[in-house]
Write a structure and sequence with these properties.
Length: about 220
């Protein structure tokens, strides 16, 4: 049976939140943000290994219950590389997830594992609902067909060997992507879109934190 692991990246500083505490360690209804997604992956029956990547100074202070905890890098991409290095060679597939997305669900993980089982890489994504304008400054150049545009979410799922190769090549070419799919796309390899969830929001600003609190209370998660 092929094994699957997850790398949860939680080593960002969260500068846009203007907080002294790293973003993933901010309390959300009495629990640090990173724990929400960590618990979902720890409780998923088909995720065999969990690696949590945190700011180096936090490594000692995070409980290592059924997961490995490693220090992150200066960029998200470097944090992913550090996390992948900690996975055992038994893991043939890996999901990469932003700790900044606390509402990941079993259903999203299942869809990605099904994609991997078909031998494909995939990311969860959500169709962009707004009308899209391409602009120069504040002048509209054109209205683009939104049916071609999806907002990328995490988790993103790949065979480990492919993701490692893509990250190595990106490093050699000084390319820093904002997600894993972008580095794999550069290899010319196919990455599938898998339907995400509108609720799978990313906490970036203070408003997102307030929204997350409201969602937690409303949905009783
Ligand atoms: O900054 P941003 O919200 O785009 O970061 C996305 C995710 O990547 C967050 O969960 C953050 O903790 C993580 N990250 C990281 N190491 C960095 C930068 C970001 O693990 N150096």
């Amino acid at each position: 049976m092929k094994k699957s692991g997850v790398v949860i990246v939680a080593a960002g500083r969260g500068e846009r939140l203007k907080s002294d505490i790293p973003k993933a360690f901010i309390q959300l209804l009495g629990k640090p943000l990173y724990k929400y997604s960590l618990e979902v992956f720890l409780n998923h029956p088909d995720i065999d290994e969990v690696v949590l990547v945190v700011p180096s100074e936090k490594v000692g202070g995070v409980p290592k219950n059924r997961c490995q905890v490693v220090g992150g890098g200066a960029t998200r991409q470097e944090s992913v590389i550090n996390g992948l290095a900690a996975l055992s060679p038994k893991c043939e597939s890996v999901l990469v997830h932003d700790a900044a997305r606390p509402f990941v669900t079993d259903a999203l993980i299942d869809r990605l594992l099904a994609t991997l089982a078909e031998g494909k890489s995939g990311i969860v994504a959500w169709p962009v609902p707004d009308t899209l304008k391409r602009a120069k400054g504040d002048i509209i150049l054109e209205t683009v067909d939104r049916s071609h545009f999806w907002a990328a979410q995490t988790p993103q799922a790949f065979p480990v060997a492919i993701l490692k190769e893509a990250l190595q090549k990106a490093k050699e070419e000084n390319f820093v992507g904002t997600d894993e799919a972008s580095v794999v796309e550069r290899l010319g390899l196919e990455v599938c879109l898998v339907l995400g969830d509108a609720r799978n929001i990313k906490i970036t600003t203070q408003y997102d934190l307030t929204l997350a609190q409201a969602l937690l209370k409303y949905f009783n998660i």
